[in-house]
Amino acid sequence: QVQLQESGPGLVKPSQTLSLTCTVSGGSITTGYYYWNWIRQPPGKGLEWMGAISYSGSTYYVSSLKSRTSISRDTSKNQFTLHLSSVTSADTAVYYCTQASGAGTSYYYRGQGAQVTVSS
Hints:
Shape: globular
Strand content: over 45%
Number of helices: 0
Distance between the termini: 39 Å
Oligomer: single chain
Order of helices and strands: EEEEEEEEEEE
């Protein structure tokens, strides 16, 4: 069974860059044909897909966040990382990493989530 675990700071100041890492166990992030996604849920709102990196290393981003988002991976550590720049209070959310068959909010497995608050 695949397990995912998010890690990173719980508090980020406005205008800074938020970086979260997802560590995967029980399966390789390079195994075809899985996609490794980042999704988030702001308080009182639904799930929002942010972006994904595929088994081959291709990246995909939601258009509304594309200018501020990047996803990278470290295959030696079986990890993938989200970077979100110029954060504001609107980026306060629970962030999840997931394994899925494609890019989006549906998933096979999901991490427990990481609460990130943007505040000075």
